[in-house]
Amino acid sequence: xxxxxxxxxxxxxxxxxxxxxxxxxxxxxxxxxxxxxxxxxxxxxxxxxxxxxxxxxxxxxxxxxxxxxxxxxxxxxxxxxxxxxxxxxxxxxxxxxxxxxxxxxxxxxxxxxxxxxxxxxxxxxxxxxxxxxxxxxxxxxxxxxxxxxxxxxxxxxxxxxxxxxxxxxxxxxxxxxxxxxxxxxxxxxxxxxxxxxxxxxxxxxxxxxxxxxxxxxxxxxxxxxxxxxxxxxxxxxxxxxxxxxxxxxxxxxxxxxxxxxxxxxxxxxxxxxxxxxxxxxxxxxxxxxxxxxxxxxxxxxxxxxxxxxxxxxxxxxx
Length: 318
Ligand code: DGY
What we know:
Layout: E1 4-7, H1 13-22, E2 25-27, H2 33-39, H3 41-44, E3 47-53, H4 60-64, E4 71-75, H5 84-90, E5 93-95, H6 102-117, H7 120-128, E6 147-151, H8 155-166, E7 170-174, E8 185-186, H9 190-195, E9 199-202, H10 216-222, E10 227-230, H11 239-247, E11 253-256, H12 267-270, E12 275-277, H13 286-306
Parallel strand pairs: 1-2, 1-3, 3-4, 4-5, 6-7, 6-9, 7-8, 9-10, 10-11, 11-12
Helix pairs in contact: 6-8
The site of (2R)-2,3-dihydroxypropanoic acid has 8 residues, from loops.
């Protein structure tokens, strides 16, 4: 099929270059998106596909502005940036990049668990500030042997669970449905899960169904000794309730790869010693990002050649 591909920012230069080497490309600007849509009607009428990441919104207005749009290739496993109802109405299909990033995101979750529970980042600051000579860094709780709850036992959640089990952690989980054939205990709600663990790892998909799933009751169930790790989406955690719980000592620590309004980080979070903050780097390893680029472009090529996607999102794949 002939036509052009719309790149929705932000895209990494490597991904943007690869798309540009293969296709005629139109770049959506970051500011003045509406003006661009109004002023480029002819060029937009040639667009048959979109390449985007979870940080680039593809809303109903954008879908409506592209009369020939047939496919959206999302570089990422989560696709809460895309208005699926608008796509369904127009018959636009959507692909994501499952499986290839499980190990990288699981590593990030493990890193955040170690960094928060063992206070590794605080310990680094302690050494750099020259405080070691004045006395020892305080003892910390251990991760091995502790109880970890996985909120969302999908592919990534299962990878995290298996790594933690290998470290001697006692793993349990909550998902919308009990997952058959796992060795891990099932909790019937997020609050029940949090009440029975020392650490809670959030790995459910973002979107309206999980908005503020981790709220004050869940944080209080985790309690003053508890650690929260979020590698899912900022929207899944009530960030105001999280800051209050940490400030008031009702929660022990938090390791966050994702935030409510990325890339903006409230000062209230930055000021808390017991919080470890990452700039949404869950999948950001060289190997994994190369595999994600490949799968994104393979999906696009497959749809353009045969009308089929390799990894369609389940909601639109029937
Ligand atoms: C994704 O791909 O959706 C994740 O956020 C990567 O970290």
